């Protein structure tokens, strides 16, 4: 987790957020051990802004990754996701759109929310997005 937090903090340094001034970095770990990062990239047309989590997922997919794993404990098919923003006094979770995008790649993710000082809090994607719409809902249609 420490290496993922460090990569997340590095990713946050690469943001393009001239409008919100709210830098966010994200890091994910693939089953092969690669760490893929992302940062938020804003646009003057606010709806075209891409969050750090979606940037990391899109990078991972374009690099050929589809499966993710955790390093904190040996649980198969768990995805480690970390986000980091400048908010110092509380942990900030992914936005609703990012939660849905993350759900596309697995329902049993560990999510670590981090602060600028490197401290983190573990939660799960299921806790962040209860009663989620998943690919399984489309299997019988």
TrEMBL record:
Q: Which residues form the active site?
A: 53
SUPFAM superfamilies to which the protein is assigned, alphabetical: Cytidine deaminase-like (SSF53927)
- Coiled-coil residues: none
Which Pfam families has this protein been placed in?
A: dCMP_cyt_deam_1
Which cofactors must be present for this protein to function?
Zn(2+)
What does the entry list as the binding residues for Zn(2+)?
A: 51, 95, 98
Q: Which residue numbers delimit the CMP/dCMP-type deaminase domain? A: 1-136
- Gene Ontology annotations of biological process type: nucleobase-containing small molecule metabolic process; pyrimidine-containing compound metabolic process
Q: Does the keyword Hydrolase apply?
A: yes
Highest taxon of source: Eukaryota
GO terms (molecular function) for this protein are:
cytidine deaminase activity; zinc ion binding
Tell me which CDD domains the record gives: cytidine_deaminase
- Annotated Gene Ontology cellular component terms: cytosol
Q: Which InterPro entries match?
A: CMP_dCMP_dom, Cyt/Deoxycyt_deaminase, Cyt_deam_tetra, Cytidine_deaminase-like
Q: What is its EC number?
A: 3.5.4.5
Q: Where does substrate bind?
A: 40-46
The record describes the protein's role as: This enzyme scavenges exogenous and endogenous cytidine and 2'-deoxycytidine for UMP synthesis.
Family listed = Belongs to the cytidine and deoxycytidylate deaminase family.
Q: What is this protein called?
A: Cytidine deaminase
Species of origin: Triplophysa rosa (Cave loach)
